[in-house]
């Protein structure tokens, strides 16, 4: 496997983790958003990844960002200005604990790929030094 292939694979993984982190950020920003009906409530999103052939290896491709199918949370709050005729307010289906866990996982995966790229760079530099000594 060439250094270029390794770099492409690590780069594709970093791109995928960036999409994942952006999705988590969007979900967390809307975690407590309220709405007057179920359709208007924020529905969390999740990226869908797939493997993709890249040279001699397999990289990561983002296929789509889909809505979380979990139901939104309904609360009876008749005094809320967003309440419907029955006094219900609808909140997003985002689970903050799950999102924080997902954020940590994505951050660590991103950092791992940064380290892969740093080691590839070091290996390339060492290879060039070997050529100078010959």
From TrEMBL:
InterPro entries: Flag_bb_rod_N, Flg_bb/hook_C_dom, FlgC. One of its GO terms (biological process) is bacterial-type flagellum-dependent swarming motility. It holds the Pfam family Flg_bbr_C. Its main location: other. Residues 8-32 form the Flagellar basal body rod protein N-terminal domain. It comes from the Bacteria. Residues 86-130 form the Flagellar basal-body/hook protein C-terminal domain. Keywords: Bacterial flagellum, Cell projection, Cilium, Flagellum. GO terms for cellular component: bacterial-type flagellum basal body, rod. It is found in: Bacterial flagellum basal body. Transmembrane segments: none annotated. Belongs to the flagella basal body rod proteins family. The basal body constitutes a major portion of the flagellar organelle and consists of four rings (L,P,S, and M) mounted on a central rod. The rod consists of about 26 subunits of FlgG in the distal portion, and FlgB, FlgC and FlgF are thought to build up the proximal portion of the rod with about 6 subunits each. PANTHER family: FLAGELLAR BASAL-BODY ROD PROTEIN FLGC, FLAGELLAR PROTEIN. This is Flagellar basal-body rod protein FlgC. It comes from Chromobacterium sinusclupearum. The lineage of its organism: Bacteria, Pseudomonadati, Pseudomonadota, Betaproteobacteria, Neisseriales. The gene is flgC.
């Amino acid at each position: 496997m060439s250094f270029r292939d390794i770099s492409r694979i690590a780069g594709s993984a970093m791109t995928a983790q960036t999409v994942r982190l952006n999705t988590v950020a969007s979900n967390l920003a809307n975690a407590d958003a309220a709405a007057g009906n179920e359709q208007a409530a924020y529905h969390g999103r999740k990226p869908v990844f797939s493997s993709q052939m890249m040279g001699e290896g397999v990289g990561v491709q983002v296929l789509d960002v889909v809505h979380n199918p979990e139901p939104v949370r309904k609360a009876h709050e008749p005094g809320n200005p967003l309440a419907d005729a029955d006094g219900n307010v609808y909140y997003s289906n985002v689970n903050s604990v799950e999102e924080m866990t997902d954020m940590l996982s994505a951050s660590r995966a991103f950092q791992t790929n940064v380290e892969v790229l740093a080691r590839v760079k070091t290996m390339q530099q060492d290879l060039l030094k070997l050529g100078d000594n010959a």
